[in-house]
Amino acid sequence: MLLLSPSFEFFKDIFSVADVPGRFAGAVIKHSTMVLHGDARKTVFQQKMAAGLFEVFEHQVICEAQEIEVLPTPLKPSLHLHISLDNNNVDAFVNGTESVELKKEEVNLFYLEAINVAIIPKGKHCFFHISFKNDTLFRMLKQPMFKRLLYTIREKIRAAEKSKGGMINEPRQVMLDAYFMMLVQDIRHCRFNEAAAICYREKKAMLMLEHFIRRLLPPREKKIELTTHDIIMLDYVKEYIKWNVHRSLTVKHLSQQFNIGANFLEKGFHQLNGVSVNHFAHLYRMESAAGLLADQEMPLNSIPLLTGYSDFKSFAVVFKKYFNCSPLLFRYT
């Protein structure tokens, strides 16, 4: 758990660490506030974190009744990328009228403005979402790879604004995958200084939004059949990348190392992890660098060598391009 000791005492009468299901690990952030609704038959833990162009929210909801309403109203009119981390489907009404089923392990984009209603069953529930302005999305959609979606999504947002809310990606659904979950966990477990944490969360939120938009594009290739042996092998590749971020890793090198075809490696890895081999290697290299910078005992000049760069100058250029802030911000601010 990421709660400070005094905060944990405040929540102790609601549930203990042992009560929290495994999928909630690390989900209760130290900046949480607790809201008791009505007769206290439902308890909502609200977490809000600054993330530059984004705001990150995560709500834990504990319902003691068989079925109960909550009113998730946005702080201001905005777009929300919603991830259902729950094991239950939830019936919701956007702007109080439009019926939407929030299915488990699904990712959806909403424009929210007026009061919304969610009807959730008895138990503990978890909802994670990021909010952002229209311009943030439109700038992303102007990238060459996404331009074909710009007109359609812009028109859907305009219609949702007139209706004071709506689902933007309907009828296309996007399912939660390993890459989405990795980004969620990165945001949850961020432990940098406040200035660095904002840059870090912003990058992760941006990657999450990019991945969502990419999943709305028509698939280029059919999925390949992956056996249990294939999945285990590809997991070994992922672990090998993590343990060798200090080395120059290419698809050719990895395919030779594991005696598998380069084409199968690229397709299978992307299908299993939601991201390419090269993208994952770069992402994990930057993740490792951020962690090393947060370690005050780690010499600065050692970090480039440990993450695959020949000197601090070249490392700093790549790091700043990725996180939109200098390595020194992670170390000293």
From TrEMBL:
Pfam families in UniProt: HTH_18 (PF12833)
Keyword flag RNA-binding: no
Keywords from the UniProt entry: Transcription, Transcription regulation
HTH araC/xylS-type domain mapped to chain residues: 235-333
PROSITE patterns according to UniProt: HTH_ARAC_FAMILY_2
InterPro entries attached to this UniProt entry: Homeodomain-like_sf (IPR009057), HTH_AraC (IPR018060), PchR_regulatory_protein (IPR053142)
Entry superkingdom: Bacteria
Official protein name in the record: Helix-turn-helix transcriptional regulator
